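Board notes (copied after class):
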Amino acid sequence: MKSSELLERIHQLADEKHAADVKALELAGVSSFADYFYICTAQSARQAQAIADHIRETVKKEAGVSVLGAEGYDTGEWVLLDFGDIIVHIFSPQLREYYRLESLWEGAPEVNFEVSSSEHRQDPQ
């Protein structure tokens, strides 16, 4: 499965668990360690864990792709899943605002997905 196809599937899976404020950045040409960052917000630690579990288990089952590394799962404030070419970041609203990861990579083009329900679930502030 190509990185772009896996990214699309990750997006679908996060959307199924109601991830909000989704952004995907194309890092190819900007960074040598990954092709994409997938960034989303979860409204609770439990939701962040559910999103991470759903992505990890389904991608392994469907595509045979395992997570190379994971961090932050226990606290659920910032869960990172490393799939090699794709790094998934699942943030709490507070940490998303604090770290503003997208602004650190503002030179990276944003990936546009087909319209999904997640685009209507913005971070409540």
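Comment from the instructor: Residues 26 and 38 are 9 Å apart (CA to CA). The chain has a mean pLDDT of 90.
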